[in-house]
Structures are given as structure tokens and as C-alpha cells.
Amino acid sequence: MRYWKTLGLGLAVALALSGCTTINQRRWGTCAVAGALIGGTVGGVTGGVAVNNNGNASNGERAAGIVGGGAAGALVGGLLGHVICDPMKEAPPPPPPPVAQAPPPPPKKIETHVHWPSGASC
Q: Is residue 87 a contact partner of residue 29, using CB atoms and an 8 Å limit?
């Protein structure tokens, strides 16, 4: 039961830390792949050694330690490789400047002439 609590705590920490990664600002590239390979190798070796040094471990337990450590190491290594050295995405080009419109023509002055019929008065 103690191991399940430790595993759950470790997964909760990994999930919380992975939420702090960059959000769609970098392109996935070779740094993430290299980080996953290196992290998987280091994690697998560390997991195997940790289980082996625990005492009378069977081959199945050693294999589980290697696989679990390798998976965790690959996940963490890939995320760190991506965040640390993958290139940034190119920013989209800026929008074109607005087209200047000609000012409207000045209003026309409307003149009205009232022509009264001859002989008419107001």
C-alpha cells in the first residue's frame, strides 16, 4: 500500500509540473527526442538499480523497475528537452497597415431662392 501512495504522489507531482510547460509557443523538434532518449536511458538504469539494490528482487521486479523508470525518464526528458532548447515558432506576419482613405468632400452649400410672383406680398 505504501508503494501505491508513493507512486500516486510521484504521478501527481509530474502532472502538476507538466502543466507549467509552454503552451504552443515552440515547435517540437530534435531536442525533445534527444531529451526523451537520454531521460529514458537514465530512468531505466536508475529504476533497475534501485529495484536491484532493494534486496531479493526477482527478474520480473527488475524488469518492472527498468520499464517504469524508463517511461518516467522519457516523459520528463522529452518535456525538458522541448522546453529548454526546441526552437520558437515563427510569429505570424503583422497585419498590413490600414489603407488611408481620402477625406470626404466638403459639404455643398445649398442656396435657396424664393421667387415670389409679381405683385404678391407676404
A: yes
